[in-house]
Amino acid sequence: MCCISMAYIKRGFKEIIMNKTIIFDLDGTLTDSEEGILKSVTYALESFGYEIPPHETLLLFLGPPLVDSFQEHCGMALEEAEKVYKKFGERYGTIGKFENQLYPNIIDLLDKVKNEHYTVALATAKPEVYAREILDHFSITQYFDVIVGANYKEGLVHKKEILQKAIELCGNPNIVDLLAKCKTEQYTIALATAKPEHYAKDILDHFELTPYFDVIVGANYESGLLHKKEILEKALELCGNPLTDDTGRRLVYMVGDRKYDVESGNELGCISIGVTYGYGTETELNDANAEYLCDDVDDIVMTLDLEEMLVRR
Question: Is 25 marked active-site?
Fold first, then answer.
């Protein structure tokens, strides 16, 4: 069975940027929220007649879900802890959430990661409604692509599941992301497949990918295009871009899943990237001397980024 493979040919030297993700906690990481939280905890405990723990114990309330902390540090049953937490919210939701300040240079850090094209996420055990209000208060909401906080209705209570949700929402690049990135970064994008060309075009149309491609070449028995090497040669000819720059640095990537893709790419002077998520095995691709092996699309993006940083012969 044949698998569609792609050749990427670059115009210019603008950097391809790897898709990176950074996930921040809120309390104690972006903001110093000790004052508002502890005053509100104290208010809630006093309202129900509980003895206020020493300051060292109160500090342990910073971070974990407060219902858990009331049970652990004040000996409450779950039902009582939930009542006290509700009282905590009376003060914290109106006053305490703003008894808070950004740590020094946080905005500089957020500027940096945003300018470097990170996906920026927040994952906090604080109720999400409060987290969003705090980000708005400090005018930093615009830095975040994903915001996930505690949500009892959705069962998001503890940090592990909150973080899992944030990671899920950040996502990983898929084929469409990769094509869009290459298009934005001014690659000429070509398809070179041993599948009959009319089938290839039908498939691209079906998945609404055709607009990403500048050149499409598939097998054509009438034209004598049967094997991968001649198909790739035809695609390179139609792209019309040089294989190397003036220093000899190679500018063409051949991305495919079988040895025929790698061997043809190597023979024609391409940088060969073998993908292991297709039909070829890692052994097959290694034996064909693939320069890079990529287990997923994210690895392809990282490889392109790495190539931009290397001084190639």
Answer: yes
